[in-house]
From TrEMBL:
Biological process, per Gene Ontology: transmembrane transport
All residue ranges annotated as the ABC transmembrane type-1 domain in the record: 454-742
PANTHER family named among the record's database cross-references: PHOSPHATE TRANSPORT SYSTEM PERMEASE (PTHR42727:SF1), PHOSPHATE TRANSPORT SYSTEM PERMEASE PROTEIN (PTHR42727)
Location relative to the cell: Cell membrane
Keyword annotations of the record: Membrane, Transmembrane, Transmembrane helix, Transport
Organism field: Thiomicrorhabdus sediminis
Entry protein name: ABC transporter permease subunit
Pfam families: BPD_transp_1 (PF00528)
Coiled-coil region: none
Transmembrane parts of this sequence: 31-59, 460-483, 495-518, 524-544, 556-575, 607-625, 721-742
Amino acid sequence: MTTSVQGKLDEALSGEAFEKRIRRRNLKDALARYGISFGGVGVIFAVLLIMFFLFYVVLPLFTPASIEKSHSFALPGGEQEKTLYYGVDEYKSSAIRFTESGKLVGFDLVNGAENFNESLPLNGNDITSFTVVNELTHLVAFGLSDGSLLFAKYGYNVTYPDNVKTITPKVEYPFGEESIELADDAISKLSIKAGESEMRIAYQVAGQQRVYIKEFSKVESMLSDSVTLEENNSGEFTPTSKVKWLKMDVSGRNLYLIDADGATDFYDIRYIDEPALVQHVNLLKNDEKPTLIRFLLGDYSLMIGTNKGNVYQWFPVRDDNNNFALQQIRSFKVSDAAVTSIGIELARKGFAVTDNQGGFHLYHSTAERHLGSETFADKGGDANVTMAPRANGAVVESGNQIVFFDIENEHPDVSFSSLWGKVWYEGYEEPSYTWQSSSASSDFEPKFSLTPLTFGTIKAALYSMLFAVPIAILAAIYTAFFMDKATRQWVKPSVELIEALPTVILGFLAGLWLAPYMEANLPGFFAILILVPIGIVLFGYAWSRLPESIRLTVPVGRRAVLMIPVIIVLGWLALQLSSPIENAFFDGNMRHWLTAEAGIDFDQRNAMVIGFAMGFALIPTIFSVTEDAIYNVPSYLVNGSLALGASGWQTLVGVVLPTASPGIFSAIMLGFGRGVGETMIVLMASGNTPLMEVNIFEGMRTLSANLAVEMAEAEVASSHYRVLFLAGLVLFIFTFIFNTLAEVVRQRMRRKYGSL
């Protein structure tokens, strides 16, 4: 190096300008380093914050109930009379007590002060039987000693004396204060169910074994708002044993006659004049005896409390021959002491139980959860429990005392078993995985199983991957390894441009155009899967047999372009063959043939539509990453293999694909991750039916689509709302675990093939 050159080099690497460049470069390096670090930490913090928020919303689902003995006071009205029933207002401020002598005592739930006193218009008769007609509308009925029937409906008046909100009970008589003649002697057993226009009454008369059934129509007066009952039909029969409990379910068609040992006659009274004995069954085994029997909310499930501290749930189940039979569904071990009372929640399938050792226990039937227990008395004895309408309190009568419990129990209907296990719901023929979060019925049993949603998520992703992965990877292999550079420069951006299509547009097209078109041309789409691959192979063979002068007119790297019209023609031909194939093999209607002959259910919006539509959306992601991985394999590896005499295919299989395998695996995982989280396509084209069927012709509902459908309708902080967030958390954790495992596999593949 000459002296002049060395001098200029020294001058360039020293001096004020050099120092300024160094400081400027160091500043940029520092900004880049801290900026990237801050961004990375920010991303991690954002992910953790999202997870924390999801846990914050979901955690209350699994917190136990809080049961606190609030206060107690002397029994209003005195303990001389037996209590028939309690009613509680929804604000837990006032209650009403019905006694066996016909007294109605209203009292303040805070201090026990009486605020209402009245007597039923019994006209000198005694109450010989009692039944609750409808818990939700507060309608009750009394059987009298002269064989007549009196209906009463309680409610509450809200007043503001001295600007203080005051709630006091009131009682009305919807069918008049005059009792309705029903029998010639005292009514000893009574059960009533009322619909909008009719009423069914089952009863027994004192001293008789026969059970009588009558049907009445409700007739509204044209001159007033009064309603009268007119008898339409009647029937009677003799039970097989002495009846202790007479229970008619919500439909008014099923009647249960239960004796002191739990032996039950199940009668179908759909036709009142021809009652039919459906089943005779013993509800209990060995020496266990029922102590009380009542319906759960909805008057469908029988809850049987026993002398050994158990509560059993029974309800009728339909068999394969469309016949119903009572079946035990669940059992709850309350304590070792006899059950003395059961109080039901009026908005959920929960219930409270008291035992004769002074224990108060809270349960939920569907979730099979024991939510908590508390003690209301130091010694045993009979008790009577009534739940507040909002299930946030309970009134327990024990001896000469009223004990009030404050309850905080927001989400009893969710448990691990109800979320992930099979649950036997009321009206179902067997336990099932079911998602049905809402209904118009006030006694609806929510079904919060996440299993069908998780299954649907995986099903949608797998079927779409079956369509997308072979096409995307094979196209990427050809584009990166065989296609010439000029053609690749417009093919790759064109494919990647598809990724910019909004998925809502793809879902719209799939749901409104592809699904009905696929249904109408189902054999044609299956013909595409067979005809197009065979046609491509035949075209390639035919091209190879052409004279070399013709083949050389198209460069090797551009010959794939020739396949575009071939594939279009083959696809068109397959669809044109749809009708001939359908007429030849499927009696002119493949959908009907699948259902009637093959026994395969078919929905228009199904997994096959999702496979095509969402697979189309996944192709650009998988193609782009795979193509980059193959194209970036070092050229010296490829050249070395070719120089050693390997053919292009041998080089691809032995060198290129193993080297690019970590990237190819990452592409597949990215595609699967997008398929799991895809919302709009499955929302619009899957039918949104939460089924657990691998059938490609049936739809599904995914976790993400379920969030999009139901989140806007969910009440904030309700069980439904929190379960939807739990679904989001499950999707989050599933994606996190799957991506972590995929990264571990990718790193191992990189170490294995990185030495090539």
